[in-house]
TrEMBL record:
Location of this chain's protein in the cell: Cytoplasm, Cytoskeleton, Microtubule organizing center, Centrosome; Cytoplasm, Cytoskeleton, Spindle; Membrane; Mitochondrion
GO annotation terms (biological process): mitotic cytokinesis
Highest taxon in the source lineage: Eukaryota
Keyword Transmembrane among record annotations: yes
Membrane spanning stretches: 16-37, 108-129
This protein's name: Protein JTB
Gene Ontology cellular component list: centrosome; membrane; midbody; mitochondrion; spindle
Principal location class: cytoplasm
Subunit structure: Interacts with AURKA, AURKB, BIRC5 and INCENP. May be a component of the CPC at least composed of BIRC5/survivin, CDCA8/borealin, INCENP and AURKB/Aurora-B.
Family annotation (PANTHER family): JTB PROTEIN-RELATED, PROTEIN JTB
Length: 149
């Protein structure tokens, strides 16, 4: 009588397990290494604290996309690519503050929705294919049992 175990025997061989461990180790090293490198880059602190962090401010100009020149010269443009001009109430200084555009947020939302839909379709197809394969194996098993009678 055959086992009901669904894990193929080939997946449990030491060589396969070693290759899988090596693969996932390299993947995790790559992911965690990238995370550590990005932390090192983002720990740079500005020399002067912007006034809009310390006091109240009034938005003079709504959130707009940075020009190519401003993206390279203004530090506020490098974070999101959008800035708004603000006036601090106590010091009356005008500064630029990084912001998130509604249009950019909408684009990100639809990209996320498309990726989610694509993954849903891919995994649904994989489930259907695997189920057909398992059904075929089960029917072959039943056929062999009937033939052996």
């Amino acid at each position: 009588m055959e086992s009901d175990c669904r894990i193929p025997v080939a997946c449990c061989r030491p060589r396969v397990l070693l290759l899988q461990a090596l693969f996932w180790g390299l993947v995790s090293l790559r992911v965690f290494g990238a995370a550590l490198l990005s932390e090192e880059k983002t720990t740079v602190k500005p020399a002067v604290t912007p006034c809009w962090l310390l006091e109240n401010f009034v938005v003079l100009e709504e959130c707009n996309r940075c020009s190519d020149f401003n993206a390279k010269t203004q530090s506020a443009c490098t974070q999101t690519g959008y800035v708004e001009r603000v006036n601090c109430t106590k010091t009356s200084r005008e500064e630029y503050k990084s912001c998130r555009s509604a249009l950019m947020e909408e684009h990100l939302f639809w990209k996320f929705e498309a990726a989610t839909l694509a993954l849903t379709v891919i995994f649904a197809v994989l489930v259907v294919i695997r189920q057909r394969w398992l059904d075929r194996l089960a029917s072959e098993k039943v056929r062999r049992q009937i033939e052996s009678i």
